[in-house]
Amino acid sequence: MSDLIERARELDARDPLAAVRADFVLDEVVYLDGNSLGALPANVPGAVEDVVRRQWGELRIRSWTESGWWTAPERIGDLVAPLVGAAAGQIVVGDSTSVNVFKALVGAVRLSGGPDAGRDEILVDASTFPTDGYIAASAARMTGCTVRPLAPAEVPDALGPRTAAVLLNHVDYRTGRLHDLPALTAAIRAAGAVSVWDLCHSAGALPVGLDSHGVDLAVGCTYKFLNGGPGSPAYLYVRAGLQDRFDSPLPGWNSHAEPFGMRPEYAPADGAVRGRVGTPDILSMLALEAALEVWSRPDVSVDAVRAKSLALTDFFLECVAAYVPEGRVVTVTPRAHAERGSQVALACEDAGEVMERLIAAGVVGDFRAPDVLRFGFTPLYLSFAEVERAARVLADTLG
Amino acid sequence: MSDLIERARELDARDPLAAVRADFVLDEVVYLDGNSLGALPANVPGAVEDVVRRQWGELRIRSWTESGWWTAPERIGDLVAPLVGAAAGQIVVGDSTSVNVFKALVGAVRLSGGPDAGRDEILVDASTFPTDGYIAASAARMTGCTVRPLAPAEVPDALGPRTAAVLLNHVDYRTGRLHDLPALTAAIRAAGAVSVWDLCHSAGALPVGLDSHGVDLAVGCTYKFLNGGPGSPAYLYVRAGLQDRFDSPLPGWNSHAEPFGMRPEYAPADGAVRGRVGTPDILSMLALEAALEVWSRPDVSVDAVRAKSLALTDFFLECVAAYVPEGRVVTVTPRAHAERGSQVALACEDAGEVMERLIAAGVVGDFRAPDVLRFGFTPLYLSFAEVERAARVLADTLG
């Protein structure tokens, strides 16, 4: 046991991201649930207080222009863009992930030509986070399509002239499996269909490469590895080459070419702004903007984060193997780096109770029915010492 | 002039809401733009700080249950309910007004039977705030309907067996005209169509009576007379008797009967919760919850607010008539109380420049193209002395 404690000490001493931890508010709890709700960045309380007291309280309505409220969705979209490999002008922040899945999928069907062009099928990852499937069913119903659930690995064979759109998760929320975005995107494009990627569990944890892999549309949340806060706004990516044909099912006034023209006829704005809908939620949006500041540190990059993420999850698996009796838990997350997100899922029959005891013992992960212990690893603020301790407490808890 | 100053003093001395002003953060500016963005309630900064520092920063993921985050949309919906004459359990807070208009209108067409039942027309107020019309066009396109724009007064004659849904504004955003919700709702119901009311400019300013007048669906924002803050979440009302047939076009996981069951099949929750979509935006939502506390004061009621609102707008019109040379501005807002919301719109050719000078002189209203000076009156924090001063400065500004 002391070997692993010593190893953790060495890994922490060599960790190029170790200093970033001070930018977050943390305590003695080992917080392995940043893939559900990221920890509080230390600069956010002050930023939010300024938004509330000065921008709203003193400037009031003037802040829509003077405090940059009106342009926040596209400005913050441009802060998210480099984290997912997108050039500026293609991402807009706002609404929930579910609402953005609806915009993206209906938009994708329309871009494909849809049922009028013989494309009447939407392929959806069968193991997706449920909301994507529910919204896909609604998008299909409202565009004259049907939904076909399948495993991501089955997508290439299922693609055909009837495929309108394909909705996939970059990282599976339950297993932590990282899907092959480049190959799947290429296959979707070759079939003449439109790709929609859900980046909730990958953005901020690993390189995505939206532009370089030719992704058509993408959505993601900002409260997991981007630490935007509870229910912070999601985002929508529309590839630059598709923007002038992107036809949103939610053409609110914020997406109008001239929003304050108050014209009865709708005319869509150019660019990412076309993905906006209604009045942006400023408090949450500007909290997110502050939370993203950490990415402008010279020592922080997506590559550095990915390297540490793999080191953390490797080390956790190593510690679990050393501390937990063989057979007590089954590792669900793939061991191959190319197939692993930034989480480790362990299965055991009594996972619900185990997670309760683990949380009581100061190690916070979460339980996903029916049998998964889910541990998220946020490289910006986790240490190897914490990872070793989490595995040790887990072993004690498993008894 | 001194007569009106003296009158203002007397009106303020007798104002039963005068003490409520201390619950808001105000300064020497006369703020007549609360119908666009309400002023900051004094208790909100502390409430938001607690949400950020303690609930998010210390409790982190535990706050979804321990701080009541998960149930906030329906809990805060029940705080909005009495302000619009709704019993509990019919309103859910979340998403933007535009997104809620989409849910409500698609839901309304489906409730009417839609094109399959020969109901393929959506009637929409032609002078509506533009987003309602844009979203109505999308809802119509996606449900096989057409949109027919018309004046609210023309609705009764236009209703017929082909009418699926009718989307109307309770108060016109530009003119401040209050439409006859009881009579129009009754006519819509008699025609077998479904009513959808937009309450953005009436909720918190005057009695709405959703339940007593038999309104089917309604939406509204919370950042105007409800003072929820910039982009605070909107709400959706679905009459109790329609909830089990309400079929949302945005069936996100938050509206599932068992959201954490993570089931691939969608099964809608009962009640107002069915109108939820994705993860609620907690910072803005809990700021709104704090902002609504003022309505629990024993001296605050919708009736008291309405009485003062009419007194404020009457007095403003009287001061304008006394101070501004006849013919310089035209009063757009109806003089009859039954037709007036909580704003006064004055038209003049140079309205854009006039409003700029007025704001520079410390009286904040807003300009709506092409020729409207718009002044909103929030009875919770405005004094008659401010109203007199606003009219006086306006007269100076108009030159």
UniProtKB/TrEMBL annotation, chains A, B:
Record carries keyword Hydrolase: yes
Pathway of action: Amino-acid degradation; L-kynurenine degradation; L-alanine and anthranilate from L-kynurenine: step 1/1; Cofactor biosynthesis; NAD(+) biosynthesis; quinolinate from L-kynurenine: step 2/3
Modified residues (N6-(pyridoxal phosphate)lysine): 224
GO cellular component terms listed in the entry, alphabetical order: cytoplasm
Ranges in a coiled coil: none
Record has Ligase as a keyword: no
Cofactor(s) it depends on: pyridoxal 5'-phosphate
Function: Catalyzes the cleavage of L-kynurenine (L-Kyn) and L-3-hydroxykynurenine (L-3OHKyn) into anthranilic acid (AA) and 3-hydroxyanthranilic acid (3-OHAA), respectively.
Protein's recorded name: Kynureninase
Provenance organism: Streptomyces xanthii
Gene expressing this chain: kynU
